[in-house]
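Review session, final week

We close the course with one last complete record, chosen because it touches almost every idea we covered. It is Mab-21-like HhH/H2TH-like domain-containing protein, a protein from Mytilus galloprovincialis with 418 residues. Go through it on your own first, then we will talk.
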Amino acid sequence: MGSLLSKESSVTKDKYVKTKEQEAIISIKVSEFIAKIIATPPLKLKLIDIYHGIYERMCGPWGRVTGSYADSLSMSTSDVVIILDNMSVKSSPEMTMNNSCTMELVIFTGDNDIPPGCCWLRAYQKDVFTRKFVPSVSTSFPYIRINGLTKKVTDAEWNLIDIKGYKCLSCRNMNEQRAKSGLTSFPFINRFLPHWIPHGPAFKQTYFWIFDVDIVEAFRCNSLPPVLLKWAKRTRKTWPSQSTLEKALEQGCHVISLPSKISSDEFTEVEFRLGYGAMEKLLTESLSDCQKQCYILLKITLKEYIEPRFPDEDIVSSYVMKMLIFWMSEETDSDTWRPECLLECFDMCLGRLFDWIESGYCPNFFIPEYNLFRTKLTSIHSNNFTCLMREIVDLKWKVLLHCKTMQWLNLYVYSFGR
């Protein structure tokens, strides 16, 4: 681990910032800096729009752009996440009743062997006599691939696995089929596309030497399963507003072919991850300017202070920082988030992050039972990461003085001592 800020250095900075009024002035200055310098430049957004159009022509209709660029909260390290969701699943067996399809996949979360945040996809088929959907007995699930350039339709199928009396879609088989195919149906075109590599459930590419793109194939679900409806009923202060909440619930969710890494081998093959990127995007857009700026400061701290000291450890991520902002925004009054209080809010968030690190439990905003640290507990407790977080919390917002993006702040802070 690299060297940390010395206590002497921290005291030196405190010598110049002695009052709440001075901290408020610095907060406003930081807020103005983020608004002018760090917010996504229009050129990058334009390039992403161009990419969107090109990719749609080459690969056919596709879903939503998510990630920091879509939220207009981009930094140089941010990426774009594109969700290909031209296929759908249902949130419950009852949702299939009026469907004209002969087979459907239905989200199932009601089993102790399914970790929070995950699901199985059970197959149902229409009975030829009753015309009602019943659990399938087939060993495969048919689907079609449509090429965006030629409009050619190709028949294909995924494996179904027998799990506890139901046929469930094989996540492993889906990923194996995807790994054998390119991003288009034309090998010649694929050779000239930017090199892409597996990245979690996605394929990662870099465009224009400016931004990374993660392309994720997922199932779309237009209605939310019960496990994703609970968060809407929580007690909250002022955020999100009722109208935002209602719009978020209309976004539906995605099912992504990424197991949890903690299930037994028997169930890993059929385990999928629930995704709520559309709801996250809507909620991020509804944050106040101060809340968004605090989120950016947290990402700066992560990318420029924490990660360089633990380059081989993936403990805290930008996604954790997003969940942190969501939780703190929900639990506090809107008056808390003002430009003159930006650094105070930043300190408040650092304190909550430390509590999560110390307890080894980071609750997902939509499914609190889903611990985002559940696969990282060994890394948290087996090195000095907790010690680093404790020192950052002690330093409070002054940790920003040692981040490259915020180096200008040193001179501004010293000016109070002149």
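Two points worth writing down before the exam:
Residues 218 and 256 are 5 Å apart (CA to CA).
Residues 1-13 have pLDDT under 50 and may be disordered.
Good luck, everyone.
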